[in-house]
Specification:
Elements lengths: L4 H13 L13 E9 L3 E9 L5 E2 L10 E4 L3 E8 L3 E7 L15 E6 L1
Antiparallel strand pairs: 1-2, 1-4, 3-7, 5-6, 5-7
Length: about 120
């Protein structure tokens, strides 16, 4: 069976255009990980945070130092920190806490990891 030069060129072009994916490549995408509320009992102004798993995020200015309760999404453990860039003292949770008084209305950043 003979291939024409045009057929071979078409096949070569298609092979070069196909993406190469290594089996070691792990794809990460920002996903919704956390819900935080300004008031106790998951009431008031609500922030829903999306990030890559393990990525530190600073709270937007309208939520900085205003968080009182929060929920981590299923299968994640989240931490809120009193300082930006996930520094300072942190408070970790996996379900639906009302924040301890020392972190209540003091959170400035957050991060979630798989548990």
């Amino acid at each position: 069976m003979q291939f024409s030069a045009l057929t071979l060129l078409t096949l070569a072009t298609a092979a070069m255009a196909a993406p190469s994916v290594s089996p070691d490549t792990i794809e990460t995408r920002a996903v919704t990980l956390i819900d935080l509320w300004a008031d106790a009992d998951f009431l008031g102004l609500k922030f829903t945070g999306s990030a890559d798993v393990g990525q530190c995020k600073n709270l937007p200015s309208d939520f900085n130092d205003r968080i009182t309760s929060g929920k981590a999404r299923a299968n994640y453990r989240c931490t809120v920190w009193v300082d930006k860039d996930c520094k300072g003292t942190g408070f970790s949770f996996i379900s639906n806490p009302k924040f301890d008084s020392w972190v209540d209305n003091k959170a400035s950043s957050w991060k979630c990891v798989a548990r």
